[in-house]
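Chain A, query sequence.
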Amino acid sequence: MTVRPIIGITSYLDEAAWGVWRQRAAVLPQTYLDAVSRAGGTPVLLPPQDGGVDRLIGRLDGLLLAGGADLDPAGYGAEPHPRTGRPQRDRDAWESALLRAALDRDLPVLGICRGMQLLNVALGGDLVQHLPDESHQTLPATFVRQGVVVRPESRLGEILGSAAQVNCYHHQAVGRLGTGLRATAWSSDETVEALELPDRAFTVAVQWHPETDPDDPRLFDAFTAASCKEAAR
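Chain A, predicted structure.
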């Protein structure tokens, strides 16, 4: 029987509505769950909470840091830009703890959008809080389809080749790189679109949203394959 790795996916903790109810809930777009399931993984939601990180990470085979709200600029020593969203410090703290525990164990990690920014900040980098030309996020809830150039001699290059068409939706970007990180993809305006930790089994983060593109499952397939190896250890 093929091993289905258990993939923990970070999620929102926000107000939501269903039926007659409107209350605070743990939510995540279904596209993340579908992408992990199609690649052969078993997705498990990880909403912000207190404690239990080490035990939880010990039961996972991979960690997916999902997209979401802007990080608190205080986390990288900056004052908030007027266009920076209201901080969600509970989520920032929870996901930072999960990420550090996963890196300590060398658990496969895939960061998406906010997840890539979290990885950079957790390792001492900072962010550009607003891209002035808005080329990566135009209309609300509408992805921008654009090309990225990929560093060939990288894990991402092995997966995608030297270029790819991707779905973007972000108004912030990576600034100073965190310790040990390597930029591995760029958009035409030279915005960093992917990061890796070269000395890890699989720590890859992208600024775009691969979970919204079921026609190109390569990144999720590679992440799940790395998680399968972790499950078999």
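Helices lie at 30-38, 53-57, 89-105, 114-122, 155-160, 218-232. The radius of gyration is 17 Å.
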